[in-house]
Amino acid sequence: MNQHRKMVIAGNWKMNKTPNEAKQLVKKLIPLVSAATCEVVICVPYVDLHAALEESRGTGLKIGAQNCHYETSGAFTGEISAKMLAEMQVDYVIIGHSERRAYFGETDVTVNKRALACLKFGLNTIICVGETLSQRQAGITEEVLRMQTKLALADLTAGETDKLVIAYEPIWAIGTGLAATAEIANNACFMIRSAIKEIFDDQTANRISILYGGSMNKNNAAELLSQPDIDGGLIGGASLEPHDFAKIVEIAVG
Length: 254
Ligand code: PGA
Known about the structure:
CATH class: Alpha Beta
Helix content: 40-55%
Largest sheet: 8 strands, parallel, barrel
Bound molecules: 2-phosphoglycolic acid
Shape: globular
């Protein structure tokens, strides 16, 4: 963590919790994180957004979605646009999560288009990048991260990066209980920051928060979050238990 960057602890609920369950979970979480001095976000299923926004109104807790379409409106059955999310006053959107890339055909091109749409509508945009186990074993982690980062940020100007956050999520660590070591995670975040420097400049790259995601929990958070290039966490499983998530927030703010 670098003092000039925003520390972000974001929960990714994935396809969990009905609207009623979301309301209860947010209600439990709010008092546990109300004193946090970092950005605390939960990214919930679309149908839970309304309940989560209502319940968190007037508190510091930020609410996010887990995807959005790149067009503003049109014949895209089943999709939700950035404009719709912005009007609901959703704060954050996750773009390009590896589960979307693996199961729903997201590509670097559509990730880029979605990110541009989110930023255009003023949404804080968390773009996920990360290598598979076979890519890591083949020694091409750096190439993969540079390529994903550069393609995700294509056509973006440095001035549009104010609301941009990147999440480094090694696919082999997601939902497996096998978090990356702090050293591996920090090195990868450094590689991503170097790629951002190549696209823009040092100043821009040094302002963008880069999160680590993949089996982060209350036991490994302290070591991961103390690394110089890790500016927060994107947390799946552990974000569904309010006390565990709040503990990570507590660790993040030190
Ligand atoms: P996990 O998920 O914490 O359950 O590994 C992280 C993510 O997919 O964002």
